Amino acid sequence: MSEQRKTKRFLSGEQKYDLWVRMLTEQITPSQAAAEAGVDRSTISNLRKTAKDGAIAALTASKPGRRKSAKEVSEAAKLQAEIDRLGMVIIEQAVELALLRGKSSWG
Fold first, then answer.
1. 3-state SS, residue 75
2. Which member of 8, 15, 43, 59 lies 3.0 to 4.6 Å from 39 by CB, making a disulfide possible if both were Cys?
3. What is the rounded distance in angstroms from the CA atom of residue 54 to the CA atom of residue 81?
4. By residue range, what is the domain housing residue 89?
5. What is the pLDDT of residues 45-92, one digit of tens each?
6. Is the Cβ–Cβ distance between 15 and 37 less than 8 Å?
């Protein structure tokens, strides 16, 4: 009586990009892309919306003038990674401090 559900299929970023470019250049339709990837058409609709929103955000964020060099972009990425790492360290230390203070007041 119960129908078997399809196993969930995950597409890599490259697969999504390839499908999006092929749809954009009208090599395939969204229905064909969904059938080829083995996913629901709503997944393809979400992919197209995400790609469009991301492109608009990227184009809006870019400012006229001098382009950043690859070295500047790389350095900014390294610095952001360090900020993220340090944020996680702070969170871990705060949790550890809260646990230690909590345990000392127990007894």
1. helix
2. 43
3. 21
4. 70-107
5. 999 998 888 888 888 776 666 677 777 888 888 999 999 999 999 999
6. yes
